[in-house]
Design goal:
heterotrimer; A alpha/beta (about 260); B mainly alpha (about 325); C mainly alpha (about 280); A: about 260 residues; alpha/beta; Rossmann fold; six-stranded mixed beta sheet; 11 strands; C: about 280 residues; mainly alpha; 11 helices; about 75% helix; about 5% strand
């Protein structure tokens, strides 16, 4: 059973059709890339499946459950987690707390338990601590756990952004342009982290401009243009696809960066 | 590290003893000021809870008033024992907070501000005109409490105890996940949702808890003064609470405490200058907001950074120990 | 009787519309809730009092000076103080609150509590539609409309006006295009407070002048701006008359106190049901 399946997903803003009839399915353990020129609808797609926008029509089924139109927090709790472009972090919390806060046990937290420190609370805290330390190691942030995000170098900030998503215990992690704006070294580190994630059993969906990254790391690629899906297949197939090349030539994006 | 903690602890103990003994060796004027300070601290830390999430309400004085009126009416008109009046004083504003908060939190920033402002004005009118219940502008007199009318010492300790309990509860909330969630929401709502934090639920809870403590403070106030009227809870009072929290700095718990203490004392000090009092207060406020925009807390953070100490984590819940052990 | 009420409502609406438009302009472009807007109104009236009533200066000149002086004060406060709070809603609110306290109490100190009056500029009444309206009030309405029309032309037809609208839409994009946002902010604040001062200067011969005269109009301004939609000038204009009529009717039948409560109740209702008001943007 695919872990994520969308059918006839459409999103209209007034007169503008940002997404039209998107239907794709993602199997567990895959790394899928979504590419397309600027304005193709990639961000909108992300927003719709992760609950930040409601689709106009269509369905999103995650892990067997219909999550169409559910709230972002609920969708995250069910295992679909997304990250954001650029650096979107909790600026007033130190690095480790950025990760801790995302370590959310789906069961409701017990407020009174928190005030009085009941055993249930303590147990949850222990489990959370283990997860936090795993994520910190994976993201390579051991040396900066107590720093505030504003003091981190750019590459670390981006890693932290992904770490936050990771901490939320995703079955499917949706990365929004994880390497845009990074130098070669930072990009390599990110790619290594993504591949490590796959080994740990996380399914990954990523949106990227950089074709090279996408081709290098993804099992399959979906191409969007003007809100429509124009191609889907392995990186090799996509690279040779006429329509895809046309779409990119028509825009000012560099194709094979 | 231990020595510092020991010193700090000792200072707290000395300060505490001083405050505990205060009514025995000082005049009633100063004790009165301290009672106001204690109640203001309760108001400020209650307000801060929601404010930390990025929403500033404009009706905190209304919750104070609701608590005061609930307690006064149940005590003076219905004749219930004070304990029940006190508890009711917390419940009533909490319910109002939920009712008014639920629809108004759907909207962004300034709208919440304005909605709570409109709510304040409407309730002010209700207090003035529902004379059957509240005696309108004449107010309610002879409000009973834990001691005969006109006594001060019992209320001094009651106010102090309320403040202590409030601070304790807030401290535990802060160090728990709830507190971190509130700060996270204040930092970035979207990001918070994306990691599964229920923004609206957290805010509603923060709003209600703050309202509840404001209500408790209102009950103590009403019984202490033995008299309340709509004039006791003016627009200016809500403005003051906002001022204390912003001047103190909302990021840490001690900020609003410091803000409430300092600004209440400043206001009292300025009282001696007569008519110039308000002008000077305004000038002090203006200077403060310009010089330390992130409040006392921000000032301390800046000083810390200047002297290279690195940041202390805002909240921990005991998870820091492992973090530093990595 | 009813006609009188309607006429009163109309006059009130015209007066409030000046203040409300000024307020919503400031909010729309600077994202600041200007808590001393009522004091700007009061200053307008007070300056006219000192110049026209005490110093016997020509009324028109007094009004012009009042508006200019308050606008200058607005500009100054923006460039020196509000500048530090761009984008900071709460900090900006406290700053305007501090200024409100400062201006309000400074005026108490200077004027004292005794109400002052300004003699009428245009004596006598005129009969319109079988009801009386004083020339004075008619003048207020006419001047208000002229001023609003002038503002509308300014915003829609001039280059500077276009820049203001650009900044309101998206200040970052506007700055990229070379618009000096800071200057636009200063200008906006000046215009906003200037409009409030104009309202005060115009009603000086009609209402009594006290240091706290700005409180009521400020409350109504809040309500009007909420109902009309924060940031929308046309909304503020329309809502000003809605509230003006509402006030006039409820004041006649329920008394002035409850009248304000009804207005706030209306505002609360709008906020809970349709927060963006009639024509507001987000």
């Amino acid at each position: 059973m695919p872990i994520l399946e969308t059918s006839n997903l459409t999103k209209r803003f007034g007169g503008l059709e940002a997404l039209k009839d998107i239907g794709l399915s993602i199997e567990e353990g895959e790394i899928i890339g979504i590419i397309g020129p600027n304005g193709a609808g990639k961000s909108t797609f992300f927003n719709v499946i992760s609950g930040f926008m409601k689709p106009t029509t269509g369905r999103v089924v995650f892990d067997g459950n219909d999550i169409t139109g559910k709230s972002a927090a609920r969708i995250c709790a069910s295992g679909l987690v997304r990250t954001f472009q650029g650096t979107k972090l909790f600026m007033s919390l130190p690095t480790v707390e950025n990760i801790q806060i995302a370590c959310h046990v789906p069961a409701r937290t017990n407020l009174l338990g928190d005030i009085f420190g009941t055993p249930g609370t303590r147990r949850r805290e222990r489990d959370a601590r283990k997860r936090v330390s795993d994520v910190v190691k994976l993201a390579g942030l051991e040396s900066v756990v107590r720093e505030l995000p504003k003091n981190l170098p750019h590459g670390y900030q981006r890693s932290l952004g992904v770490a936050i998503g990771l901490a939320a215990n995703p079955k499917l992690l949706c990365l929004d342009e994880p390497v845009t704006g990074m130098n070669a070294e930072e990009t390599q580190l990110m790619i290594a982290m993504i591949e490590q994630l796959r080994r740990e059993g996380v399914t990954i969906l990523l949106v990227e401009h950089s074709m090279r990254t996408v081709m290098g790391v993804c099992d399959r690629v979906v191409v969007l243009n003007f809100g429509r899906q124009i191609a889907a297949g392995t990186p090799e197939e996509i690279q040779c696809n006429e329509e895809v090349i046309q779409a990119y030539l028509g825009s000012s994006d560099e194709v094979f960066t | 590290m231990d020595k510092r903690k020991l010193l700090f602890g000792a200072l707290i103990l000395i300060g505490l003893s001083f405050l505990l003994m205060f009514p025995w060796f000082s005049g009633s004027y100063y004790s009165h000021i301290l009672i106001l300070v204690y109640l203001n601290v309760v108001l400020a830390v209650g307000y801060r809870l929601l404010y930390a999430t990025g929403l500033g309400s404009f009706c905190h004085a209304t919750f104070y008033a609701l608590g005061g009126y609930a307690s006064a009416i149940l005590g003076q008109k219905v004749g219930l024992p004070y304990v029940l009046c006190f508890v009711a004083a917390g419940i009533v504003p909490a319910i109002f907070a939920l009712v008014i908060g639920w629809p108004s939190m759907r909207v962004k920033g300034p709208y919440f501000f304005l909605t709570t402002f409109a709510f304040f004005m409407v309730m002010d009118s209700v207090f003035r005109h529902w004379t059957r219940l509240t005696n309108g502008s004449r107010g309610i007199i002879n409000i009973p409490g834990i001691a005969p009318i006109g006594t001060m010492r019992p209320y001094y300790y009651l106010a102090m105890a309320l403040m202590a309990v409030t601070i304790l509860v807030m401290y535990r909330l802060d160090r728990a996940r709830f507190g971190t969630e509130l700060l996270a929401i204040g930092d970035d709502e979207e990001l918070a949702s994306s990691v599964g934090i229920n923004v609206t639920a957290n805010r509603l809870l923060a709003f209600s808890i703050g309202a509840m403590f404001a209500g408790f403070a209102g009950s103590v106030y009403a019984s202490y003064i033995s008299f309340i009227s709509p004039a006791s809870f003016s627009l200016l009072s809500t403005i003051f609470v906002l001022v204390w929290v912003v001047i103190g700095g909302p990021r840490k718990l001690w900020g609003p405490i410091a803000g409430a203490v300092v600004m209440t004392l400043v206001a009292e000090l300025l009282r001696m200058s007569g008519t110039l009092q308000a002008i000077l207060y305004a000038i002090v406020l203006l200077i403060a907001i310009l010089v330390i925009p992130r409040g006392f807390v921000g000032l301390v953070d800046d000083l810390r950074a200047r002297f290279g100490k690195g940041e202390e984590p805002t909240l921990g819940a005991g998870l820091e120990a492992d973090a530093s052990g990595m | 009787m009813v006609r009188q009420i309607i006429l009163n409502g109309f006059v009130l609406g015209a007066t409030i519309s000046l203040m409300a438009i000024g307020f919503t302009l400031i909010f729309g472009i600077l994202r600041v809730v200007n808590f001393w807007h009522g004091e700007a109104y009061m200053f307008g009236a007070v300056i006219v009092f000192f110049m026209y009533q005490q110093a016997k200066v020509n009324y028109v000149l007094a009004v012009i000076v009042a508006v200019a002086a308050v606008a200058a004060l607005g500009l100054l406060s923006d460039q020196t103080i509000m500048r530090r709070f761009r984008g900071d809603l709460m900090g900006g609110a406290i700053a305007t609150i501090a200024l409100y306290l400062l201006f309000q109490n400074a005026m108490w100190y200077i004027l004292g509590g005794r109400p002052r009056g300004v003699r009428k500029v245009l004596p006598g009444n005129i009969t319109l539609l079988n009801t009386h309206i004083s020339w004075e009030r008619l003048m207020v309405v006419i001047v208000s409309f002229v001023a609003i029309a002038a503002l509308g032309l300014f915003i829609n037809r001039t280059r500077v006006g276009k820049m203001m609208r650009a900044v309101q839409q998206d200040s970052e994009a506007a700055q990229i295009q070379g618009i000096r946002a800071n200057r636009i902010y200063g200008l906006t604040f000046a215009i906003g407070t200037g409009l409030a001062a104009l309202a005060g200067a115009l009603i000086a011969p009609i209402y009594s002048i006290t240091p706290v005269m700005g409180a009521g109009p400020l409350m109504l301004t809040f309500i009007v701006v909420i109902v009309g939609g924060l940031g929308s000038i046309s909304g503020a204009f329309i809502a000003a008359f809605i509230i003006g009529f509402q006030q006039s009717f409820t004041a006649a039948y329920l008394g002035p106190d409850l009248s304000l409560a009804v207005s706030f109740g209306l505002a609360l209702l709008i906020l809970l049901i349709r927060p963006t008001g009639l024509r507001g943007q987000d």
